[in-house]
Amino acid sequence: MSVIDARGLTKTYSISGAEVRALRGVSFSVSAGEYLAITGPSGCGKSTLLQLIGGLDQPTSGTVALMGTDLHALSDRLLTGLRLTSIGFVFQRFHLLPVLTALENVELPMAEAGRPKRERRARAGHLLEYVGLAGRAKHLATELSGGEMQRVAIARALANEPALILADEPTGELDQATGAQVLDLFDRLHADGATIVVVTHDDRLADRAIRRVRMVDGQVVADESRG
Question: Which residue from 99, 123, 162, 201 has the least number of CB within 10 angstroms?
């Protein structure tokens, strides 16, 4: 069974009375353990596609199944629960809570999922060690560098042991040297068996993925695997 199976996805927005077709019948699947990069020019629909496969938005038509479950047939409550436990999100601008420490930010999804405090504290510490930030656990998010914040965000995405990691321009706010650390971390996640779908303009990141989907004008124009 595919982790993600998208079929015939369309998305149309109404902007100032005009219809904008962001997606035009996109279909693809992602298997367990794949590392997929979605690339293309700005406005081609790649971030819209990521939002649909993450259950953050509804398609105009078409379906998205996560491990066989149609995301958009679920109630809001069930969809929220599925996102919390089965999908880890990494965003360009980190979205850490500034009043919380690095450890507390990583704990947060586990607290929302109802995991016991001792268990989530231990796992959060382990995940910060995994991303190389064990020594920054007690620092507030505002005391971290951009690269450190993104690594905390990746640790947070892993908190509930998701089936799928979705990343939207994870190196977009980082300089080249700091971004390279994040690229290495995604390589490690993939080597450890994670299923990753990343939207990126960064060719360094796209070139490390084992599969690359190229989009133009809301459509997939190429689907290439390497190795």
Answer: 99
